[in-house]
Amino acid sequence: MSVSVGQAAPAFSAQDQNGSTVSLAQYAGKYVVLYFYPKDDTPGCTVEACAFRDDHSTLTAAGAVVLGVSPDDAKSHTKFITKYSLPFSLLADTDNAVAKAYGAWGEKSMYGRTYMGILRSTFLIGPDGAVKYAWPKVKPEGHSAEVLAALEAVKAGKPVATDATAPAPAPAKAAAKPVAAKKVAKKVAAKKPAAKKVAAKKPAAKKVAAKKPVAKKPAKGPARKR
C-alpha cells in the first residue's frame, strides 16, 4: 500500500550513480521530491526525467531536492544521466527495498501478462520528514509541473490533500476563450445519382419518296409503208 499524505516518510539509504550512499536523513530540513520509475532510458521514464531536468532550477530555488529511484544499477544510472544531462541523483534500488517501503512495488500487467514491478509514483516529502503530497499513479507527461505546483501550494500554506490518491493542484491556467461558432458548417450533400435523361427516341419515319407513275411509251409497231 502506498504511503499516505501526512505520514512520516519511510527512512531509506541507497547508492547513487557514483556509488555514494544517499539517505533521507541527510536532507532533513529540505523538501525532497522522491520519484520511482521502472527503467532507465525507456520512453516514459525518459520523458519524466527530462521534465524534472528542465524544471530542476525552479525546484532547487524552491528548496527541493530531486531523487529518482529505479531497480537499475549505478552503471545504468550513469549512462542515463550522461545521455540526457540529468542534474539530479538516481538511486540504485536493486533489491526494491526502497520501493517496497513506499508502496511503489506491486503487481502490474502488460499484454495479458501479470508480473511484479515498479509502480510509477512520486512523493513530496516536507522539511519535517512528513509526506505532503503523493502521486501513486503517475503519467510522465506534465508530471513535473504537477509536483512544482504542489510544492508552491505547500510553501504558501495552502491545505494539502489527506488522501494519497488525491492529485496535486494543477498550475493556474488562463480561462479558455469561447470558441466562435463556425459560420458555415460543412455540409456533405447526399448526392443522388443523377437520373440519366434518355430522350425517348421515336422511330424515325421512313421517308418514302412518292414515286410518280412513269408514263408508258407506246410500243413501236411495224413501220408503215407509204
What does this molecule look like?
The chain is an alpha/beta fold and 226 residues long. 21% of the residues lie in helices and 20% in strands. It contains five helices and nine strands. The chain has helices at 43-54, 56-61, 74-84, 97-101, 143-155, and strands spanning 13-15, 21-23, 31-36, 64-70, 89-92, 105-110, 113-118, 121-125, 131-135. It has a five-stranded mixed beta sheet. The chain starts with 12 loop residues before the first strand and ends in a 71-residue tail after the last helix.
The biggest beta sheet is recorded as:
5 strands, mixed
Tally of strands? 9
**What is the number of helices?**
5
> Strands across the major sheet, in which order?
5-4-3-8-9
- Percentage beta strand: 15-25%
SSE pattern: EEEHHEHEHEEEEH
Q: For the CA atoms, what is the radius of gyration?
A: 43 Å
Roughly how many Å apart are the termini? 155 Å
Derived from helix and strand composition plus strand pairing, the structural class reads alpha/beta
Blueprint (SSEs and pairs):
Layout: E1 13-15, E2 21-23, E3 31-36, H1 43-54, H2 56-61, E4 64-70, H3 74-84, E5 89-92, H4 97-101, E6 105-110, E7 113-118, E8 121-125, E9 131-135, H5 143-155
Which features does this protein show?
226 residues, alpha/beta, 5-stranded mixed beta sheet, two-stranded antiparallel sheet, 5 helices, 21% helix
Give a concise summary.
This protein has five helices and nine strands.
